[in-house]
Amino acid sequence: MRLILFSTVLLISITTFSQQAFTFPVIKEDNTLNWKGIEKKVPKTTVDKFIKATPKNFQPYKLKDPDAFLNIDSLRNDLHFVDLNGDGNEDVVFYGQGGGESRETRIFLNTGQNYKQVFSDYQSIVKFDWENKKIQNLYIINWGCCDDYVVTNKIYQITYDKLNIPSFKQIYQSASIFKAEKPDTLFEKSIRFEVLNDNYNMRSNPILDDNSLQHWNDDQVKGKGTGNVIGKLIKGATGTAVGKKLDKSGREWWYVEIDEQFPPKANVIVLAPENKFPTKVIGWISSRFVKPL
């Protein structure tokens, strides 16, 4: 009996830790990684040597159209030289225009003899986690394109084989409303919580609004809208609060990530059907009817 109880407590502890282990940095949608202090400035000859060594890449930059805004000069600006695996060789991170409307991030490992692409995803890196001069985690934000209203956040964990070649495994995903308001105060330590009321409103912004039309409403919708409610949480749903804001009435709002096993009902944050990764929903809830854990 004691062994069973101990095992149960251990399992709960591990589960709780894994839920708290990662939250996504609170940033503005247009706030991509600041490369200052990360990248190494290399001679133009080194940059051009890399471009020559990867002839099948970066085709939009190689059209040789004098009026195009993409050209070899802009490609040079979109290449960042960083030693990512601590071997003394400068690897290359490309952040620039892909083949379509979206931007892309690609990582090329410098093996000493050639360059090997080891990672690619849409949009931008916002953060690296480093340990022993090697990247351990990579944070990507994808704000979509065109009329998308959903922002997707991903975290990749990096492991290395015997040859020091990195592998990237996605371990986290969250989604929020594009250009939704961010907290003006971040908690020094995030707060785990449980929702006390059923059908608890989750909102895109820290204000009571049940009537306005929003940019995620269908173009054909006319008249009264549904306000800034992006979904309704069930009683017992859990999540992590990372920041707060007070509205004009003095109501305190929490900026939260809802655990992926409690997706909101009537959720307006809809991902592409092929995106099957368990996803936390990010938004605002009133702090009145939640219980810290």
Q: Which structural traits does this protein have?
A:
293 residues; mainly beta; nine-stranded mixed β-sheet; four-stranded antiparallel β-sheet; 3 helices; disordered N terminus
Explain what you see.
The chain is 12% helix and 39% strand. It has three helices and 15 strands. The chain has helices at residues 2-21, 44-53, 72-77; strands spanning 79-82, 91-97, 103-110, 115-122, 124-131, 134-142, 150-160, 166-177, 185-195, 200-203, 229-233, 238-246, 252-258, 280-286, 290-292. The chain has a nine-stranded mixed sheet, with no helix packed on it. Strands 1-2-3-4 form a four-stranded antiparallel sheet. It is elongated, with a radius of gyration of 22 Å. The two termini are 26 Å apart.
Bulk shape: elongated
The largest sheet is: 9 strands, mixed
| Helix/strand class | mainly beta
Number of helices: 3
Question: Which residues sit in consecutive blocks of at least 5 with pLDDT less than 50?
Answer: 1-20
Radius of gyration: 22 Å
Arithmetic mean pLDDT: 87
Q: How much β-strand is present in the residues?
A: 35-45%
Cα end-to-end separation: 26 Å
Order of helices and strands: HHHEEEEEEEEEEEEEEE
Number of strands: 15
Strand order of the largest sheet: 5-6-7-8-14-13-12-9-15
How much helical structure, as a percent, in the residues? Answer: 10-25%
